[in-house]
Design a protein that fits this description.
It contains twelve helices and eleven strands. The chain is α/β, with parallel strands linked by helices and about 325 residues long. α5 links the parallel β6 and β7 (about 175-180). Keywords: Plasmid.
């Protein structure tokens, strides 16, 4: 697969050769509850793909690698841990990518690089709003004045702003609280909240389990739903070939899933709590998810749009998206 030029959240600069430590720690934040991030997290971890492509020659000769995988419920805590220098890589959805880039641009010297996409749905399918199975609510207009939970800072959080704008619903009329996917599932099951908004595949998971009913699908926004992976500037500049190895692992993960989605879904179900039937809705040929690591102009435009929504409704800080290109080492 030919590697396309990538966009980043900072300009990538050359650094002088250095002598690497005998052990290099690689900390990766991933999301086992978010299907669209699997090629850059769950699958790489499950198949040990990163180890296959890590460099072992030249400056990396005799180096040992300590890969640390940390599972998070959404993209927001991954960004916080990257800012705190606790994670080198992170996988997340579109709105979290925007928040990630904006937060890093607020720092004096550190930045984050968008190094690969993982998967997308061109029309926005994947996000959804679910009500308890016995709820009498049938449309989002009936949610005004009621409690809606969502992982704050996630793609589904951004979808709520898009939905409110499209449906002319004042955001002030929605009582939005922060809940992780697991907490949201529990609250819907116990009929403790009016609705829960979440990213892929939580809505389908709740319908499959018979505890929730989707009343709004992200496809109604007609805005592409994206996911990707970022790395800190400091790590990428120090270990550029490890970033290349990570991208190679993502491409290999894509190929493994695409070759036999049914087998892949069964394996991914063993690595996560998501049933294979739900995973197959996403990863089957013609399913919700399209796997492609390329960072295109269309995706940059989508991130610009996402940022405009957050700037308008959530007071997001400034974030320069479109002008930020780099020349990360090409995959050979």
């Amino acid at each position: 697969m030919k590697r396309l030029p990538v966009f980043t959240f900072a300009c990538f600069v050359a650094v002088s050769p250095i002598v690497y430590a005998k052990t290099i720690n690689i900390s990766i934040g991933y999301q086992s509850m978010c299907t669209d991030t699997y090629p850059a997290g769950t699958v790489i971890k499950g198949l040990h793909l990163l180890q296959k492509y890590l460099p072992h020659s030249g400056k990396y000769a005799n180096v040992k690698y300590n890969i640390i995988w940390r599972d998070y419920s959404s993209g927001a805590p991954i960004t916080n841990m990257m800012i705190a220098n606790k994670l080198d890589f992170g996988t997340m959805g579109d709105y979290p990518l925007v928040v990630n880039g904006a937060k890093f641009q607020q720092t004096k010297n550190e930045r984050s690089y968008l190094i690969t996409m993982t998967g997308y749905n061109l029309d926005g399918a994947g996000n959804g709003i679910v009500v308890p199975i016995k709820s009498k609510i049938t449309n989002v207009g009936e949610l005004e004045g009621k409690v809606i939970s969502t992982p704050i800072g996630s793609s589904s959080w951004g979808m709520l702003y898009e939905m409110a704008q499209d449906k002319h619903i004042p955001m002030s009329s929605l009582h939005i609280i922060n809940q992780s996917p697991m907490a949201g599932i529990a609250a819907i099951t116990a009929d403790k909240i009016a609705a829960h908004a979440d990213f892929c595949p939580i809505s389908e998971y709740m319908e499959y389990k018979g505890v929730g009913r989707m009343i709004y699908n992200g496809i109604d926004t007609r805005v592409p739903y994206l996911h990707g992976a970022v790395v800190t500037k400091s790590f990428a500049e120090k270990y550029p070939q490890i970033v290349v190895a990570f991208d190679k692992a993502v491409i290999a993960a894509d190929a493994w899933i695409t070759k036999n989605p049914y087998v892949a879904s069964k394996m991914m179900a063993k690595w996560t709590m998501i049933p294979k039937e739900v995973l197959y809705l996403y990863f089957s040929h013609g399913g919700y998810l399209t796997l492609n690591p390329a960072i295109t102009e269309k995706w940059v435009d989508t991130l610009k749009y996402d940022h405009s929504i957050l700037s308008k409704y959530a007071g997001s800080s400034s974030f320069q998206v479109g002008s930020l290109r780099s020349s990360l080492p090409r995959i050979r």
